[in-house]
Amino acid sequence: MQWYESINSYLLDKCIALSNTGGGTFIRESTWEFPVIEGVHVLSIAMSVGMILWFDLRLLGACMRNRPVSEVFRGVYWWMVGGFTAAVISGLLLFWAEADRAYPNIFARIKLLGLVIAGLNILYFHNWTQRTQREWDNDPVPPLRVRMAGFLSITCWVVVVAAGRLMAYTF
Amino acid sequence: MIREALLPFFNWLGTSPFGTAIADSKYAFAVIEVFHLFGIILLLGGASLMSLRLAGLAMREQSISEVSRQVRWYSFFGLMTMLVTGVLMVSSIPNKYYHSGPFWWKMGFFWAGVVFHFTVFRKVTRFDGTGLLLGGVTAVVMIVLWYGTGAFGRAIGFY
Lengths: 171, 159
Description:
Helix content of chain B: over 70%
Number of strands of chain A: 0
Number of domains of chain B: 1
Distance between the termini of chain A: 26 Å
Largest sheet of chain B: none
Order of helices and strands of chain B: HHHHHHHH
Oligomer: heterodimer
Number of helices of chain B: 8
């Protein structure tokens, strides 16, 4: 496991250096910037995840059943993407300021893992599941593989949000 | 004046069985706060969807009344989760909240949001003939009240 130890200490050194840069120190020690960035992070998560969950519920056949899946997707797509982009940018700024404490934190790692699985789920859904969308687009309750994508997405976002909040208690 | 009148209620919350149980527990507050956040996500997500539809900026292929029928329970469930978990959080450290400036701003925005949501917003989103001006103004007020509630809630932890 020596390779793990060396990668681990290399990344930790990089994170400590990152948080000690001028930008990281400025955000961390600011009176207004840090709270404002964190506020933007929470509110943009609320908007984007709130809309992603709404679309996931359509995949599960729990809402908007009389509307095609593609129509519900089109209706919220740009707002999901916009909110998520704001969440990622504000999240990276927060990480910049506290990278040294976030790197070894177990909840930060769980959050990152949740985001990676959510991303893979989106990729799989987009590249494989959606190939047959014409067959199930109008189904009030889509087939199992589509519902599985919705369920996995909801699970990932619940984990991401919970781990993100619990990070603050373990810093 | 309202603040002083509510002091006995805050004191009672602090001595209530659930208040003392949460205060004594190591993990209860953190877990309740996570659920509070889920409530905020559902409320803000649902209110954003409905407000954007009203302003003609999202889900334009569905009518306003249809989106309203579908989204209503989503926001309502979020609101209830937020309310119950919020009371539980306050009950564990009532003194901190009572003396926090942002907390009272949050309460102001929250109750104004509740009243606006169940009166004007509900009425406007029930019909399809709402003009873009009335829809847009209603949407902006609703967004400001709910996002303001969230922003001041976050500020409690800092100030």
